[in-house]
């Protein structure tokens, strides 16, 4: 042990923890967790942020960081920059987790929140994140430094030189000379790509599993598969599998990591654990008698505590908060009447109904069902049953990207006594049926 001279010396060299086989229950698997949550600002992004700016720092005085980030990268950039008088303007679709926004504000980050386009990216739109950053840089040349985590190879390199090498060294210390699987969430893809590239040098057969959120679901810190296309660093062929995890499974696995292993990790780590078991259970079962046991490492990206409001919204019963409705049971979801686009169109012509579009404002603005109102899923989720702002005498139809989120809200409002429906297949099905869409300028 020694005393450190500078906080940046504490970035990296995070612990590798073997996850007890008695808990995961998979024979012939040695599963490890790389605890990136031990970085000084709390996440895997500390390495990427430091790796992207450290060489340029001496020349950056007087300028400001401008970055697309809604959380961990912004936090690390802000703290690293503040010590050198460099501010941060974080541009983001929307920060959906209150604690994350509050922490950034507390640290002095300037946050530019755009309407939210997660389901419907449109780089040509004037309020797309990339477009706003490009316009800001052009308007004020020389004022901003854009590290550009989604395209900067130094993000990948930070994990190639650090995370991957550290895993190899830690395993070598335990007499293990190869890794068969790396599993991690996909945001920029820097951590999975850098780590796996380093480890593949010692085992060319290494397989990388990328973890995304299920379509229409939200897990803070990672993207859904459809949102990966605008990540410049993303190389689809790099991944052996890309596994989509539903938010509810990520939350359950997050709680399991805490209760059974003592790992206080955020929901993307829960998602990575759930995906790891899905992939590794059949892989371990398929081993032949002489094969060596599988060695797998999952990346624990950050800590549990910044996500209390996210967890409260999904598991209110754990917080002893009876005013918040518990999520619908499978039977309640199954009981929701699902309208085809044609049925919704007929119903809309026949009588007065309320159509509620639960997508982000940008997606709504680009294309929505004529006459529908826009109430984002996270706002809707904040209402208690007696606060719901809908007319009880009219049928209520929820609309979302593909019909899952809408089913959730239809089930909850039916429980509260509304005559509620879900549009089957979501806005995509409405569009495919050739029915009219409205655009708001
Ligand atoms: C909590 C969390 N998990 C996972 C990731 C994914 O990491 P990467 O950007 O290296 O793909 C991020 C990225 O921001 C994150 O914040």
3D structure, described in words:
It comes from Nocardia jiangsuensis. InterPro entries: Cys_Synth/Cystath_Beta-Synth, Rhodanese-like_dom, Rhodanese-like_dom_sf, TrpB-like_PALP, TrpB-like_PALP_sf. Keywords: Pyridoxal phosphate. This is Pyridoxal-phosphate dependent enzyme. Residues 349-439 form the Rhodanese domain. Strand 7 (181-185), helix 7 (190-200) and strand 8 form a beta-alpha-beta unit. It is built from 16 helices and 15 strands. The chain has 3 domains: 7-44 and 153-311, Rossmann fold; 45-145, Rossmann fold (3-Layer(aba) Sandwich); 330-432, Rhodanese-like domain (Oxidized Rhodanese, domain 1, 3-Layer(aba) Sandwich), CATH 3.40.250. It is globular, with a radius of gyration of 23 Å. The N and C termini lie far apart (60 Å). The strands form 3 sheets. It has a 6-stranded mixed β-sheet with strand order 1-2-10-7-8-9, sandwiched between helices. It has 441 residues and is α/β, with parallel strands linked by helices. Helix content is 36%, strand content 15%. Bound molecules: pyridoxal-5'-phosphate. Residues 43-45, 71-73, 185-191, 221-222, 266, 268, 301-302 line the site of pyridoxal-5'-phosphate. The site of pyridoxal-5'-phosphate has 19 residues, from helix 3 and helix 7.
In terms of per-residue confidence, which ranges show pLDDT below 50 for 5 or more consecutive residues?
Answer: 117-121
Global structural class: alpha/beta
Question: Which geometry do the CA atoms define?
Answer: globular
Number of strands: 15
Give the helix tally: 16
Which architecture name of the largest domain does CATH use? Answer: 3-Layer(aba) Sandwich
Strand content: 15-25%
Calculate the terminal CA-CA distance, rounded to whole Å. 60 Å
Oligomerization status of the protein chains: single chain
DSSP helix fraction: 25-40%
* Biggest β-sheet: strands ordered side by side in the sheet: 1-2-10-7-8-9
Gyration radius (Cα, Å) is: 23 Å
Major sheet, described briefly? 6 strands, mixed
Tell me the name of the CATH class of the largest domain: Alpha Beta
- Which small molecules are bound? pyridoxal-5'-phosphate
**What name does the CATH topology of the largest domain carry?**
Rossmann fold
Mean pLDDT: 93
**Total number of domains:** 3
